[in-house]
Amino acid sequence: MKIKIITIGNKMPAWINEGYIEYAKRLPSHCAIELIEISMPKRSSSTSTDKLIEKESELLLNAIQSNDYVIALDEKGTQWSTKELAGELSRWQHLGQNVVLLIGGPDGLGDVCKQRADQLWSLSKLTLPHPLVRVMLAEQLYRAQSLLMNHPYHRS
Fold first, then answer.
1. What is the pTM of this model?
2. Is residue 4 part of a domain?
3. Which has the closest alpha carbon to 61: 33, 91, 100?
């Protein structure tokens, strides 16, 4: 199984990149994550938000393989405790498919991406800045994996 994080945006502040890399490198090879950054479409005052989301959705969907198991990050998705996430991660590892986690742009994820998703996952009821989501996601995957491996990183 390979875990891919596909996200809109590729010009992140150094602290975002450093935070993501810190947790990504801690994951064992059987649970390694790959970050796929998609350039944000050009924005202008004449382009509607709906058109931007539509274009971003098209770019995200083009980066997914037909047999990928897709989890869309969305505020209306299911929220999991760390132990529940560890259970989900274990289940994903036994699917025999690559897992793709989709992060939308600043205006969110398009409905077409949510419809393609096999699961919707909410990290929080809070609205989070999309660059920070990649860091939080890497940390939570590391935390869940450490729980599965009985590593002392997670304390309940």
1. 0.92
2. no
3. 100
